[in-house]
C-alpha cells in the first residue's frame, strides 16, 4: 500500500492533506495557507456575506493589494483614477475589516506582490497546501509546497471551509542537469523549458523540477522557475525542499522557530520524491546547452536564444502555425530573418512576481553599475515588496539604478499587466522580466519580450535586445 509504494513530492503533500475522497474520486483537501488579493476576492467575500458565513480560519489567511495600485508616491496620497481598480482596492479593505482577515496595507513595508510576500514572510512553507485566486501561485511551489491558483468561487469555498475540492493531477518531472553557462539564469532555464514543452506541455500535470542545475539555484531562482510552470500549462510547479529551503525559512516572521522548526524540518526532509516514484511524463534538459533566452512572439513558448533571428512564417510546419507566426510577426512589428539583438526597445521593465526579488535586482544592478540608460529608453525597477526595496536601498542599489537613469519605484505588479497606471502605449517595445507576453498584456498594442533581469538591464543600456554575455 502507500506505506511501501514510492511516492512523489506531489503525492506526499496531496495525501497528507486529504480530508476525504468523494464517491466520484474527487478529493477534499485541507488548505494550510490562503493568500488573498483584491482582484479575485470581491465576489468571494460577497458570497460569504450573503450566506451569513464567517471566514473559517482567519489565521490561515493573509490579504494584500498588489495589482491595481500605482507604484509612485501618488498611491499614498492620491485616489486611484480608474474606477474599477479603485473599487477592487476599496472593496478588499472593507472586506478584511468586516471579516477580520489579516491584511498587509499599502503603508506597511511588508506590502508587495502576493507571491513575493508569502515566502518572504514565512507564510508559505514546505509541505503546505497554498492557494490564492491567482494563476502564479505556482511560485510558492519552490518552497517544496503544493501551491496553485484557484478561481473566485473556490476562493469563497476556502474562505468558508479552509478546504478545496481537487482532482489528483498527473506527475511530471523536468530534470535539468549540468552547470548553467555564464550569463544564464533561472529565467533562461524556465524559458527554455517552455520553449521545449510548449504552453500546453504540462496540461493535467504538476511539474517537479529536479536535477543538479535546479538544486544549484538559490530560492529566488527557484521561485522564478516555479512561477512560470503555469505558462507551461501545468497545474503547479514544485521543487523538493532541501538545505537551501531550510536556510531560507529560518527567522521568517510566520515560520516556526526553535524546537518547532526542528520538528518541521524533520518532516520536510521526508517530502522529496522517493527513489523509483512514478512520473507520468519525464522531460530532460542539459543546462550546459542553455543560452540567454528571449521571447519574440506573443506566447511564452515562442522563445529563442538571443543569438537567433526572427522566424519566417513561410517555414512553418503547417498552415495553422504559419498564420499564427504571421500574426505574431505583424503584431510584434518584426521582419522575418531580423536578428533579435537588433530589436530596439522603448521600455525596460524589471519587476513582477517572476523576477523582483533582491537577487534579481542585484543581477540587474551588476550590469547597470557605472553605465547609463540608452537615450530615449524608459527603464524602471519595481521591487517585489517594500522589504525588497528597503534591502536594495541598504545596499545602495537604488543609487546604481537612479544614477543610470532608471526609475526606482514602489512595490506592486506594475507593468507586468495593464491594470494600473504603469502601461505600455500602442506599439511600444518592452524588454520585460515578467511572465506573460500575449497581445496587450502590458497595455493595449504593447510588445513584450520576456527575458532575465540581467538581459533586461543589458537592453536598457544598449537600447536594443542584447546578449548579456557581451556586456563588459
Ligand atoms: C489578476 C489575476 C487573476 C491574474 C492571474 O491569475 O494570474 C494576474 O495576476 C496575472 O498575472 O494575469
Ligand atoms: S506580478 Fe504579474 S504575474 Fe505576478 S501576480 Fe502580479 S500581475 Fe500576476
How would you describe the overall organization of this protein?
The protein is 32% helix and 16% strand. By secondary structure, the protein is of the alpha/beta class. It folds into two domains: 9-166, Aconitase, domain 3, CATH 3.30.499; 293-470, 2-Layer Sandwich (Aconitase, domain 3), CATH 3.30.499. The chain is globular, with a radius of gyration of 22 Å. It starts with 8 loop residues before the first helix and ends in a 10-residue tail after the last helix. The model has no long low-confidence stretch (mean pLDDT 98). 3-isopropylmalic acid (IPM) binds next to loops.
List the defining traits of the structure above:
iron; 472 residues; 5-stranded parallel sheet; binds 3-isopropylmalic acid; lyase; binds iron/sulfur cluster; alpha/beta; Aconitase_4Fe-4S_BS; leucine biosynthesis; metal-binding; single chain; Aconitase, domain 3
Question: Could you give a quick summary of the protein structure above?
Answer:
The protein is of the alpha/beta class and 472 residues long. It has helices spanning 9-16, 42-51, 74-77, 83-98, 114-120, 152-161, 186-197, 212-215, 219-227, 243-249, 258-268, 319-331, 358-368, 386-394, 397-404, 453-462, and strands at 18-21, 27-30, 33-36, 61-64, 103-104, 129-132, 146-149, 163-166, 170-177, 205-210, 236-238, 281-286, 293-295, 303-305, 347-350, 378-381, 407-408, 429-432, 447-450.
CATH top level class name of the largest domain: Alpha Beta
Q: Helix- and strand-based class?
A: alpha/beta
**Attached small molecules:** 3-isopropylmalic acid, iron/sulfur cluster
What is the helical fraction, as a range of percent? 25-40%
Strand portion, in percent?
Answer: 15-25%
Estimate the global geometry from the Cα principal axes: globular
Low-confidence stretches: none
- Count all strands and give the number: 19
CATH fold name of the largest domain: Aconitase, domain 3
CATH architecture of the largest domain: 2-Layer Sandwich
> For the CA atoms, what is the radius of gyration?
22 Å
- Please report the distance between the alpha carbons of the first and last residues: 58 Å
The number of domains: 2
**What is the spatial order of strands in the main beta sheet?**
5-4-3-6-7
Q: Number of helical runs? A: 16
- Fourth-tier CATH superfamily name of the largest domain: Aconitase, domain 3
Write down the overall mean pLDDT.
Answer: 98
Amino acid at each position: 500500500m502507500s506505506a511501501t509504494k514510492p511516492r512523489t513530492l506531489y503525492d506526499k503533500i496531496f495525501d497528507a492533506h486529504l480530508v476525504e475522497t468523494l464517491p466520484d474520486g474527487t478529493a477534499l483537501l485541507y488548505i494550510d495557507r490562503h493568500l488573498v488579493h483584491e482582484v479575485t476576492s470581491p465576489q468571494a467575500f460577497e458570497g460569504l456575506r450573503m450566506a451569513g458565513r464567517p471566514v473559517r480560519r482567519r489565521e490561515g489567511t493573509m490579504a494584500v493589494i498588489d495589482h491595481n495600485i500605482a507604484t509612485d508616491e501618488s498611491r499614498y496620497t492620491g485616489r486611484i483614477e480608474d474606477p474599477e481598480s479603485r473599487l477592487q482596492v476599496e472593496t478588499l479593505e472593507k472586506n478584511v475589516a468586516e471579516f477580520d482577515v489579516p491584511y498587509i496595507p499599502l503603508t506597511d513595508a511588508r506590502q508587495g506582490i502576493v507571491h513575493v510576500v508569502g515566502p518572504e514572510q514565512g507564510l508559505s512553507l514546505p509541505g503546505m497546501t497554498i492557494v490564492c485566486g491567482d494563476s502564479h501561485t505556482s511560485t510558492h511551489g519552490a518552497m517544496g509546497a503544493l501551491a496553485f491558483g484557484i478561481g473566485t468561487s473556490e476562493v469563497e469555498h476556502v474562505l468558508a471551509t479552509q478546504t478545496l475540492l481537487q482532482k489528483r493531477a498527473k506527475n511530471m518531472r523536468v530534470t535539468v542537469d549540468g552547470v548553467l553557462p555564464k550569463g544564464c539564469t533561472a529565467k533562461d532555464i524556465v524559458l527554455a523549458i517552455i520553449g521545449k514543452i510548449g504552453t500546453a506541455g504540462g496540461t493535467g500535470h504538476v511539474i517537479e523540477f529536479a536535477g543538479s542545475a535546479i538544486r544549484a539555484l538559490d530560492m529566488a531562482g527557484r521561485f522564478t522557475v516555479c512561477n512560470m510552470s503555469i505558462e507551461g500549462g501545468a497545474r503547479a510547479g514544485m521543487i523538493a525542499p532541501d538545505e537551501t529551503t531550510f536556510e531560507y525559512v529560518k527567522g521568517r516572521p510566520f515560520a516556526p522557530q526553535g524546537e518547532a522548526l526542528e520538528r518541521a524540518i524533520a518532516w520536510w526532509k521526508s517530502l522529496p520524491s522517493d527513489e523509483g516514484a512514478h512520473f507520468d511524463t519525464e522531460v530532460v534538459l542539459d543546462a550546459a546547452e542553455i543560452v540567454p533566452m528571449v521571447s519574440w512572439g506573443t506566447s511564452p513558448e515562442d522563445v529563442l536564444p538571443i543569438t537567433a533571428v526572427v522566424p519566417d512564417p513561410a517555414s512553418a510546419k503547417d498552415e495553422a502555425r504559419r498564420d499564427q507566426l504571421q500574426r505574431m510577426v505583424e503584431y510584434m512589428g518584426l521582419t522575418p530573418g531580423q536578428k533579435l539583438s537588433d530589436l530596439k526597445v522603448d521600455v525596460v521593465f524589471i519587476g513582477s512576481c517572476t523576477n523582483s526579488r533582491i537577487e534579481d535586482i542585484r543581477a540587474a544592478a551588476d550590469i547597470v553599475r557605472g553605465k547609463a540608460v540608452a537615450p530615449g529608453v524608459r527603464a524602471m525597477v519595481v521591487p517585489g515588496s517594500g522589504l525588497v526595496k528597503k534591502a536594495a536601498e541598504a545596499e545602495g542599489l537604488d543609487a546604481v539604478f537612479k544614477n543610470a537613469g532608471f526609475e526606482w519605484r514602489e512595490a506592486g505588479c506594475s507593468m507586468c499587466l495593464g491594470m494600473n497606471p504603469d502601461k505600455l502605449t500602442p506599439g511600444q517595445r518592452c524588454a520585460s522580466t515578467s511572465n506573460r507576453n500575449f497581445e496587450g498584456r502590458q497595455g493595449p498594442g504593447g510588445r513584450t519580450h520576456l527575458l532575465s533581469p540581467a538581459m533586461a538591464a543589458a537592453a536598457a543600456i544598449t537600447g536594443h535586445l542584447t546578449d548579456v554575455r557581451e556586456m563588459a
